[in-house]
């Protein structure tokens, strides 16, 4: 079965290509490489032996996107990762985010409609919960106000898909990722953030001496140690959940419901200081950090109830926080050598 992976040259996209191939799927990537490099597909090939074809088209260009599906009429399903995802950047450039993230989704859904593509898995985010009204959050937790334009593009994206799903027999799954971190154990693929935006790339670049010091954004939150709490989940566990989601859709015998939501988190919370401690423990690398003022837009604490994904998708996350730190560090050292 052939699956199109949009954003296939990205962090979660490339790890999902590996998992899909290892589970017998044929894959193509659709990625304009505006925030990625096709070089990562070399790493996918080193792991799987498969050379994945990437169609470097901008999904906001409907004609260009349609041409990909014209050339690949046997695509049965799409996993849609391609989107901009920096919370801070979205606050500074809201139109860039609304245009890119929503135009690309709308064009993809038109193609799903016009080319009879049966299965769609959408990359959503725990950021749709905003500052959650309850913890842990379940898929039924009411969504609070989106804290950034990025989060709003995910809330609106979910609503667009939910409405579209009512109009046909296409089947949709929305996967709400918590904080994806770590890298494939082979060391051949991982996240590439030349200017780190997220905590773990910032930690590994500080430990590698590329950054002088990690700034910890605030320690006066209402948490165990005052620093923000998040639900960190290994990127390989996230990737595997996409394969299970597709297999679930393929094996469904009826059409109802044809849009389902799943939380993808470890179901545990870890504070920033606990992540730092886990990094030092897993790598024996002491980390230079300093507590500074809070970062605007940060949610104080959020972590998932992942029962539904375990029960319905038979998903079992298997990597620990220490594994996440060890694989992230191994990838950072690899990056110093291959210098993507
Ligand atoms: C984590 C914690 C910071 C950097 C991310 C993605 C978003 C979405 C959800 C998928 C926070 C603290 C960070 C630093 C720090 N993922 N921090 N110093 O904000 O939870 O959002 O996950 O859809 O796309 O961006 O992740 O890694 O930026 O921050 O103290 O230098 O680490 O305050 O508490 P965040 P993050």
Q: What does this entry look like structurally?
A:
By secondary structure, the protein is α/β, with parallel strands linked by helices. The chain has a domain at 2-181 and 233-265 and 308-317: 3-Layer(aba) Sandwich (Rossmann fold). It is built from 11 helices and 13 strands. It has helices spanning 11-22, 40-48, 62-71, 87-92, 94-114, 149-165, 199-207, 235-251, 272-283, 307-312, 321-338, and strands spanning 2-6, 26-30, 53-55, 75-80, 119-125, 171-177, 179-181, 214-217, 229-230, 232-234, 259-264, 270-271, 289-292. The strands form 4 sheets. Strands 3-2-1-4-5-6-11 form a 7-stranded parallel sheet, with helices on both faces. Helix 2 links the parallel strand 2 (26-30) and strand 3 (53-55). Helix 1 packs parallel to helix 2 (40-48), helix 5 (94-114) runs parallel beside helix 6 and helix 9 (272-283) crosses helix 11 (321-338). The radius of gyration is 19 Å and the shape is globular. The model has no long low-confidence stretch (mean pLDDT 96). It binds UDP-4-deoxy-4-formamido-beta-L-arabinopyranose (WQD). UDP-4-deoxy-4-formamido-beta-L-arabinopyranose binds at residues 85, 87, 125-127, 177, 179, 198-199, 202, 214-217, 228, 230, 272, 295, 298.
């Amino acid at each position: 079965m052939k699956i199109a992976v949009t954003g296939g040259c990205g962090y979660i996209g490339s790890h999902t290509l590996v998992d899909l191939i290892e589970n017998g799927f044929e894959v193509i990537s659709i990625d304009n490489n505006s925030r990625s490099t096709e070089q990562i597909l070399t790493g996918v090939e080193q792991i799987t032996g498969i050379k994945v074809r990437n169609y470097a088209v901008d999904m906001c260009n409907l004609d260009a996107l349609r041409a990909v599906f014209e050339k690949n009429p046997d695509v049965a399903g799409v996993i849609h990762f391609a989107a901009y995802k920096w919370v801070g950047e979205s606050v500074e450039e809201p139109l860039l985010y609304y245009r890119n993230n929503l135009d690309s989704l709308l064009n993809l859904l038109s193609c799903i409609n016009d080319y009879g593509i049966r299965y769609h898995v959408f990359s959503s985010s725990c950021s749709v919960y905003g500052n959650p009204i309850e913890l842990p959050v379940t898929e039924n937790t009411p969504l609070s106000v989106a804290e950034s334009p990025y989060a709003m593009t995910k809330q609106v994206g979910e609503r667009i898909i939910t409405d579209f799903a009512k109009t046909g027999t296409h089947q949709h799954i929305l996967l709400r990722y918590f904080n994806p971190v770590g890298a494939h154990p082979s060391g051949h693929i991982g996240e590439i953030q030349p200017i780190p935006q997220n905590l773990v790339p910032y930690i590994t670049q500080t430990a590698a001496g590329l950054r002088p010091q990690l700034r910890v954004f605030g320690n006066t939150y209402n948490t165990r140690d005052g620093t923000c709490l998040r639900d960190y989940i290994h990127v390989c566990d996230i990737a595997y959940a996409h394969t299970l989601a597709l297999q679930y859709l393929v094996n469904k015998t009826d059409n109802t419901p044809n849009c389902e939501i799943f939380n993808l988190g470890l179901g545990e919370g870890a504070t920033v200081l606990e992540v730092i401690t886990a990094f030092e423990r897993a790598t024996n690398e002491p980390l230079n950090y300093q507590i500074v003022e809070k970062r605007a837009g940060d949610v104080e604490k959020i972590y998932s109830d992942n029962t539904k994904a375990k029960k319905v998708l038979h998903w079992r996350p298997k990597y620990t926080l220490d594994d996440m730190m060890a694989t992230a560090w191994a990838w950072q050292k690899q990056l110093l050598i291959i210098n993507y």
